Amino acid sequence: MTTKKTEITELLGIKYPILQGGMAWIAESTLASAVTNAGGLGIIAGGSAPIDYLREEIRKTKANVNGKPFGVNIMLMSPNAEELAQLVIDEQVPVVTTGAGNPGKYMAKWKEAGIKVIPVIPSVALARRMEKLGADAVVAEGTESGGHIGENTTMCLVPQVVDGVNIPVIAAGGIADGRGIAASFMLGAQGVQVGTRFLAAEECQIHPTYKQLVIDAKDTDSIVTGRTTGHPCRNVKTKFSKKLASGEMNGTITPEEFEEITLGSLRKAVKDGNLEEGSFLCGAIAGLVTKIEPAKDIIEEMFSQAEELLSK
Ligand code: TUI
């Protein structure tokens, strides 16, 4: 088995079958360009950023990558998802990934515009629906992932999605080295999406405090908050996230209060490194991330390790 030529490398025209996660507030042109230039698929996060900012980020990325493909992630819960769905058409973005919802209503117009569409999904049912609507591939994202998560684990979700659809499947959640890639391929995936390891990329523009939290994290240092709101979210364990999780559990923080307290907390983490009020989203694999390196080194190391394992 090899990672060198898969349905994903062929579909997207990339060297390595790796997508960089569309991390809200984090994934901007510098990181996305570095990943694309290293042979993966860099992704700019739509998040809920203003449309003019996103247009600039798309144009900057285009200028950096010399015709190589990149993507934009559209977070479907974002208030400006509709506007962004049109922006990717107007700016001729080659690939769109989606998260936190069902992109059904945009699918036909994206396909018509020639965009490759890859929804991120947490279940087989949703993967099947996306296939019917014309998705080119799906990212099956396990609950090990950072940020907004579903219930099932990568190990259980990926093979079930692989069996449930006829389009290629990209595994996500808990993949930070070549072992994770090799395991994903064994489960039937044709590619991987990686977020947490790229938080420690040299080109990732997050606050140094955020990077250090990820590097210092050990296996037990992620925690899920927001379960009472219906939008569970995996974070680095900090005093703030622990207080939120326990407040939700014992009822001293209502879902409404939770929403109020966490409003703007991702920006506070990413831009200010604010440990008191910031939500430092990260995956459960953060314990495996130990140093800051260029995205190119991360990708090349991951795939050389995976190739060695898969050739055994
Ligand atoms: O979307 C993500 N990860 C994210 S989005 C985000 S910003 C945010 N912050 C707080 C609350 C909510 C969002 C941070 N991290 N990953 C992809 C993903 N998509 N995970 C789960 C889903 C998902 C969930 C339900 C996809 C589809 C879905 O469909 C429900 C339906 O409409 O049928």
Descriptors for this entry?
single chain, 312 residues, alpha/beta, TIM Barrel, 2 domains, 8-stranded parallel beta sheet, 3-stranded antiparallel beta sheet, 14 helices, 11 strands, 43% helix, 15% strand, globular, binds ligand TUI
CATH topology of the largest domain: TIM Barrel
Uncertain segments are: none
Give the distance, in angstroms, between the N- and C-terminal Cα atoms.
9 Å
- Return the CATH class of the largest domain: Alpha Beta
CATH architecture of the largest domain: Alpha-Beta Barrel
How many individual β-strands? 11
Number of domains: 2
* Estimated structural class: alpha/beta
What fraction of the residues are assigned to beta strands by DSSP? 5-15%
Ligand roster: ligand TUI
Biggest β-sheet strands, sense, barrel: 8 strands, parallel
* Strand line-up across the major sheet: 1-9-8-6-5-4-3-2
Elements, N to C (H/E) = HEHEHEHEHEHEEHEHEHHEEHHHH
Count of helical regions: 14
Structure description:
This protein folds into two domains: 7-204 and 291-311, TIM Barrel; 218-281, no CATH class. The protein is of the alpha/beta class. The chain has helices spanning 7-12, 29-37, 51-65, 81-90, 104-112, 124-132, 154-164, 178-186, 196-199, 208-216, 239-250, 255-262, 265-272, 295-310, and strands at residues 18-20, 42-45, 70-75, 95-99, 116-121, 138-141, 147-148, 169-172, 191-194, 222-225, 233-236. An eight-stranded parallel sheet has the order 1-9-8-6-5-4-3-2. Strands 7-11-10 form a three-stranded antiparallel sheet, covered by helices on one side. The structure holds ligand TUI. Ligand TUI binds at residues 24, 75, 77, 99-102, 120-122, 126, 141, 147-150, 231, 233, 281.
